[in-house]
Design goal:
Helix content is about 25%, strand content about 35%. By secondary structure, it is of the alpha+beta class. It has a 6-stranded mixed β-sheet, sandwiched between helices. A 5-stranded antiparallel β-sheet has the order 13-12-11-14-21. Helix 5 links the parallel strand 7 and strand 8. The longest helix has 18 residues.
């Protein structure tokens, strides 16, 4: 395996600037997920690494080798696509060994590589079947097996689980995580599914409009988002947010609703500053039905507008500051629509962002 470095990587399509000079270093053996909304540049970045898109500027290095002008087959990468891309007339064994065959490797070497990959993926009983005889999950395992047999420097995954149903996606996430632990592979994984990114990746790269908003561990991007965009993008349900203005030791929303200024930010803001206040659904809950009681808790009676029972938890929809907010109630009890309940706001878990720049004020 090898590390991967992107230096000021840039891509333009005529007047459209798809990727805007991004820098990224992926360590040998690291699993990095690229996430972001449609059109953010994540798939374009992956295709430039693979050599399937010409770059407009910058450098791509695999190990210490500059690969800007190398054809895909010369980069020693393997790519797993959303569509599986299996040859329907070939058996699983033939599909997995095909790249080695066209590279004119000895048959004994091909057979050994296919057998080893099949054992790792637990698809040995499928080797003599054709793709039409396989389920979606089995086809994806074969596609991964075909990538493994090449012993590439870098594995590239382009939304590989998006064609699978929810249950199978969960199973395949586990398989991919086990496989990465076994191989110690360098992986760049593009997905629109933040659950995949959070559960699989050592580090998550959140992209927006062709640039990187934040690149950090799953824990950091969730608990310490660098920007308002990251805070709203990562997390399901998303973070609750309202615009507010600093008034003394209070935050005042446009409709006049107020909350105490969280203690962690009292030395980081100025009088009259416009900010975005954010609090995750886990940190707003009916009294006695949350995960924890923080060091700065504000209690408010609020009307329950809607409930979504999910078994071990219930999502509650309330209104505060002129906006609909979501609360996550653990150990749920039955609540009626229109019922007024005391909600606790754990302000020690709050986030504050500058209203103009969108940057977090936590480390300002």
């Amino acid at each position: 395996m090898a590390d991967l470095t992107l230096n000021r990587l840039d891509k333009r399509y005529g007047g459209f600037h798809a990727v805007k000079g991004i820098d990224l270093a992926v360590s040998d053996g690291e699993f990095v997920a690229l996430v972001g909304p449609s059109g953010c540049g994540k798939s374009t970045t992956l295709r430039m690494i693979a050599g399937l898109e010409e770059i407009s500027g910058g450098d791509i290095l695999i190990g210490e080798r500059l690969v800007n002008d190398l054809a895909p087959r010369q980069r020693n990468i393997s790519m797993v696509f959303q569509s599986y891309a299996l040859y329907p007339h070939m058996t699983v064994r033939e599909n997995m060994g095909f790249t080695l065959k066209i590279a004119k490797r000895p048959q004994a070497e091909i057979d050994a590589a296919v057998a080893e990959a099949a054992r790792a993926l637990e698809i040995e009983p499928l080797l003599d079947r054709r793709p039409a005889q396989l389920s979606g999950g089995q086809r994806q395992r074969v596609a991964m097996g075909r990538a493994i047999v090449r012993s590439p420097d870098v594995f590239l995954f382009d939304e590989p689980l998006s064609n699978l149903d929810a249950k199978l996606r969960g199973q395949m996430r586990t398989e991919i995580k086990k496989l990465h632990a076994r191989l110690g592979a360098t992986v760049v994984y593009v997905t629109h599914d933040q659950v995949e990114a959070m559960t699989l990746a050592d580090r998550i790269v959140i992209m927006r409009d062709g640039h990187i908003e934040q690149a950090d561990t799953p824990d950091e991007v969730f608990n310490r988002p660098a920007t308002r965009f990251v805070a709203g993008f990562i997390g399901s349900p998303p973070m609750n947010m309202i615009e507010a203005e600093v008034r003394g030791d209070r935050l005042r929303a446009p409709d006049g609703a107020e909350l105490p200024l969280p203690q962690a930010f009292r030395d980081r803001v100025s009088e009259g500053q416009r900010v975005t206040f954010g609090l995750r659904p886990d940190d707003i809950y009916p009294t006695g039905h949350g995960l924890h009681a923080g060091t700065q808790v504000e209690t408010r009676p609020l009307e329950v507008e809607l409930t979504e029972p999910l078994g071990n938890e219930t999502l509650l929809f309330i209104r505060f500051g002129g906006q609909e907010w979501t609360s996550r109630m653990l150990n749920p009890r039955h609540l009626r629509r229109g019922e007024v309940v005391e909600f606790q706001f754990d302000l020690s878990r709050a986030h504050l962002f500058d209203a103009e720049s969108g940057l977090s004020l936590r480390d300002a």
